[in-house]
From TrEMBL:
PROSITE patterns associated with the record: ASP_PROTEASE, PEPTIDASE_A1, PROKAR_LIPOPROTEIN
Protein name, UniProt field: Peptidase A1 domain-containing protein
GO molecular-function terms, A-Z: aspartic-type endopeptidase activity
Organism classification: Eukaryota, Metazoa, Ecdysozoa, Nematoda, Chromadorea
Record flagged with keyword Disulfide bond: yes
Organism name: Caenorhabditis angaria
Peptidase A1 domain mapped to chain residues: 71-393
GO biological process: proteolysis
Catalytic residues identified in the record: 89, 281
InterPro entries: Aspartic_peptidase_A1 (IPR001461), Aspartic_peptidase_AS (IPR001969), PEPTIDASE_A1 (IPR033121), Peptidase_aspartic_dom_sf (IPR021109)
Annotated S-S bridges: 102-109, 315-353
Length: 399
């Protein structure tokens, strides 16, 4: 065995050691689980700086879209570690999980894993109050400091000064049936509530642990592979999950993962005029854009309007639907009918097909497109913190 070969093996081992994989849990959704009106309210509260929630925005409406997002997996908090399933959300910037002292009447909290600061030797209860206003103030709690670790082997961790919110009050029925315990925000610190740094900041600061300051999402769209929902990789990408080169688009601002959308077209016809902002958001299931443009797209694909911004299409038409092209990073990214149509089971055993597009007029910093799971499911998505950019490539299981 040559010295050169030994060094190559050692380099590969070292590289693999710096890559953390978190496998996503997979679920399917029913027609009853989608409510476009509630999703719109959630997204406005999340992304529209000019939006002021009204008194009709009940607490149980604010987080409805999180029920339809699919990116959730394990983290561990404290010493000894307490395990939680969290939704990894690039459209927010705070980590929160249910708190052990939440009231018995809070059903959502009681049905999920709860963090107990007193049972962790590394936890510090700061006593600071915390509130995230998803709609009209959906989650309230206190701030604790403790170690946060990713995955199941606890090799990639923060130190004990990491801040997190311990939720003492959760909204209505939204989280009662949620498959995850809390939310792990992966946006930029500028939009963090209470100016709490998100855990990835500490991971990125350790170059020995994380030589590449990025994370990447792959969502498995293979309906026959129910055991694997996809995965997030920390500190490196995984070429096994995408084909071709990664196209890079620089960030427009360090708040959300906000990049320039060069254009949207169908059959060579442009549906946008000039560049516009877009946010790559793993915390929403849909793809939204200005209402006037989305209406034209719905008409083009032959979708029929229902209530509250929903559009239905005959499932038999999916194979013949036109491709829709998004220009990002100097490259065209094409969504097919099977990508942008949601096939949802009804209670009667039949399937309803809804358009995955929704019109949403964001005032500030709008006009704005939100590229949620409808888009990310088709394209491997890289969030490069170190180089302030987003990378996209065709996911391998959807090529």
């Amino acid at each position: 065995m040559t010295t050169k070969f030994v060094l190559l093996v050692l380099a590969l081992v070292a590289s693999a050691a710096c890559l953390e994989r978190i496998h996503f849990q997979r679920r399917t959704f029913t027609r009853e689980e989608y409510n476009f009106e509630k999703i719109a309210k959630h997204l406005r509260a999340k992304h529209d700086r000019a939006y002021v929630p009204t008194s009709e925005d009940a607490y149980n409406e604010g987080l409805s879209d999180y029920s339809n997002a699919q990116y959730y997996g394990p983290i561990h908090i404290g010493t000894p570690s307490q395990k939680f399933i969290v939704l990894f959300d690039t459209g927010s910037s705070n980590l929160w999980v249910p708190c052990s002292n939440c009231p018995l009447g809070n059903i959502a909290c009681q049905m999920h894993n709860k963090f107990n600061c007193k049972k962790s030797t590394t936890c510090t209860a700061t006593g600071a109050t915390f509130e995230i206003a998803y709609g009209t103030g959906s989650m309230k709690g206190v701030v604790d400091n403790d170690i946060v670790c990713f995955g199941n082997d606890n090799t990639m961790c923060t130190d004990k000064t990491q801040g997190l919110a311990c939720a003492e009050s959760e909204p209505g029925i939204t989280f009662v049936g949620a498959k995850f315990d809390g939310i792990f925000g992966m946006g930029w610190d500028r939009i963090s509530v209470n100016n709490i740094s998100q855990p990835m900041d500490q991971i990125f600061a350790n170059s020995a642990l994380c030589p590449n300051q990025l994370f990447a999402f792959w969502l498995n769209r293979d309906g026959n592979d129910m055991a694997n929902g996809g995965e997030i990789t920390l500190c490196d990408t995984d070429p096994n999950h995408y084909t071709g080169d990664i196209a890079w688009e620089p960030l427009l601002s360090e708040d959300y993962w906000r990049i320039n959308l060069g254009g949207v077209s169908i059959d060579g016809e442009s549906y946008t005029t000039g560049n516009t902002d877009s946010i790559v958001d793993t915390g929403t299931s849909l793809l939204t854009g200005p209402s006037s443009i989305i209406k034209k797209i719905q008409k083009k694909i032959g979708a029929t309007p229902l209530l509250n911004g929903e559009y239905e299409i005959a499932c038999s038409k999916i194979p013949t639907l036109p491709n829709i092209t998004f220009s990002l990073g100097g490259k065209d990214f094409v969504l097919r009918g099977q990508d942008y149509i949601l096939q949802l089971a009804n209670g009667n055993g039949q399937t309803t097909c809804l358009s995955g597009f929704m019109g949403l007029d964001i005032q500030a910093p709008g006009p704005l497109w939100i590229l949620g799971d409808v888009f990310i499911g088709r394209f491997y998505s890289v969030f490069d913190h170190g180089n302030r950019r987003v990378g996209l490539a065709t996911s391998k299981n959807s090529a």
